[in-house]
Design a protein that fits this description.
440 residues; mainly alpha
Length: 440
């Protein structure tokens, strides 16, 4: 549990920890534009989202332990390269390869949980695993704010000893799990189509605010993504062993979790970036002060994540997730009403952060537990689909925030928080509409 939780935390933290370090990184490479520096985030987001499902499917065939340890090795090596990067181009390239390693780690770590523990403990361990992910997301800004006061390179360098330790522990402790010999190899055409669909969609979403949503390049990317998505669906329905098997969506719980994760993640990405940006750009907090100010959210997430198993055992999967998504919407409504240009952390930002921590701790564990409703041989692929949905949602949320806040004004942030509220309410609606008709 410690090994699988640590690698998942490390891989997911790196998606969020860089947000508050972009200014410092830009200053280290004079002459670089804001658009160029933003590719440190964009490269990771695009590659991570695109590679998740193919990596999960290959892990089931090749061996989950082998895939996980290879991903940890790649992630650790590229973290060292990023920490020592002499130029922005090297840093962006290292981040893209780091994302490949993260995509090999995250779904495989969840896929290894199920065979490592008895069935009666699955709710508990999946709750802990998903809680770790929620804490990683919420802890990104505070951890980044703390490390950037030393040097932004520490954001990447700190992964190296953790990666080496988990490589050794994982080699000794983790079981190897793979499909039986002779199982059909995943369909290459469907894997390529999915890779193109997700990468083009995330690229268009990331570049849309800068290029303009009606710019020919943006429209062309969305059109190409739609064609690739159509090809993916066609291969899913017709291929013998597609990378996403249609049987994954036969159950209402998995389908509901996939839709809700997309919506919730879009809103949660707005939360994580908007709070850090608002306190730095409107209230003029330092990166460290802004990071520490966000800390109540991950601390609250920890409290609920540690109790995710008992909560789900008592209330089921739907009620905690719906409560969490509505808490995120309520936080947005509170900020719209209470946060103004004049700094007022305790009366304005703090209560919403507690609600956000509640949302992160309650929502993600039951949604990721939906992978446990699948057949054991589909758990890793199912986890990858759920993570892909989350990453695409996060990219959409960040793009919407950037589009709605071209200048750092309270009006722009109010519009972004309105979208956050709508995403939370829509996620709750999806969970209620698609909830299982009968509780097992």
């Amino acid at each position: 549990m410690a090994v699988l939780g640590a690698v998942a935390f490390m891989a997911q933290l790196d998606f969020f920890v860089v947000n508050v370090a972009l200014d410092g990184i830009g200053q280290s490479f004079p002459g670089t534009s804001v658009a160029s520096v933003s590719w440190i985030l964009s490269a990771y987001a695009i590659v991570f989202a695109a590679v998740l499902v193919p990596a999960g499917r290959i892990a089931d065939h090749w061996g989950r332990k082998k895939m996980l340890l290879s991903g940890v090795a790649l992630f650790t090596l590229t973290s060292a390269v990023a920490a020592a990067a002499p130029s922005l181009g090297v840093l962006v390239g290292a981040r893209a390869l780091q994302a490949v390693g993260a995509a090999m780690i995250v779904p495989t770590s969840l896929g290894l949980l199920y065979p490592s523990f008895p069935k009666r403990q699955h709710t508990l361990v999946v709750g802990l695993w998903a809680g770790v992910g929620a804490i990683a997301a919420s802890a990104g800004p505070p951890v980044g704010g703390l490390l950037v006061t030393l040097d932004w390179r520490w954001i990447f360098l700190i992964n190296v000893p953790v990666g080496i330790a988990t490589l050794v522990a994982g080699a000794l402790l983790l079981p190897e799990v793979r499909q039986p010999r002779g199982a059909a190899v995943p369909d290459a055409a469907s894997a390529l189509a999915l890779l193109l669909a997700v990468s083009l969609l995330v690229l268009a979403t990331v570049q849309g605010p800068g290029w303009g949503w009606t710019d020919l390049r943006t429209v062309a990317l969305f059109a190409a993504a739609a064609l690739a998505a159509a090809a993916t669906v066609e291969r899913t329905l017709r291929a013998k062993a597609p990378v996403i098997e249609k049987q994954l969506f036969a159950g209402r719980q998995f389908t509901a979790a996939t839709a809700a994760l997309f919506l919730f993640s879009a809103g949660f990405a707005i939360v994580l970036l908007s709070t850090a940006l608002f306190m730095q750009e409107v209230w003029h907090f330092s990166p460290l002060r802004a990071g520490v100010s966000i800390a109540p959210a991950p601390l609250t997430s920890i409290a609920f994540a540690l109790n995710a198993g008992p909560i789900q055992h008592r209330l089921g999967h739907t009620a905690p997730a719906v409560t969490g998504t509505l808490a995120m919407a309520l936080a947005a409504g509170y900020w719209i009403a209470a946060v103004h240009t004049t700094p007022d952390y305790w009366g304005g930002m703090f209560p919403g952060l507690i609600l956000v921590g509640l949302a992160g701790g309650l929502t993600q564990a039951p949604l990721f537990a939906a992978a446990g409703t699948l057949a054991p041989e589909r758990a890793t692929t199912g986890s990858a689909v759920l993570n892909m949905s989350r990453q695409i949602g996060s990219a959409v949320g960040v793009a919407l925030l950037v589009a709605l806040t071209p200048q750092a004004t309270t009006t722009g942030f109010d519009h972004a928080w309105s979208v956050q509220a709508g995403a939370g309410i829509a996620a709750a609606g999806a969970l209620l509409a698609l909830r299982p008709r009968h509780t097992p």
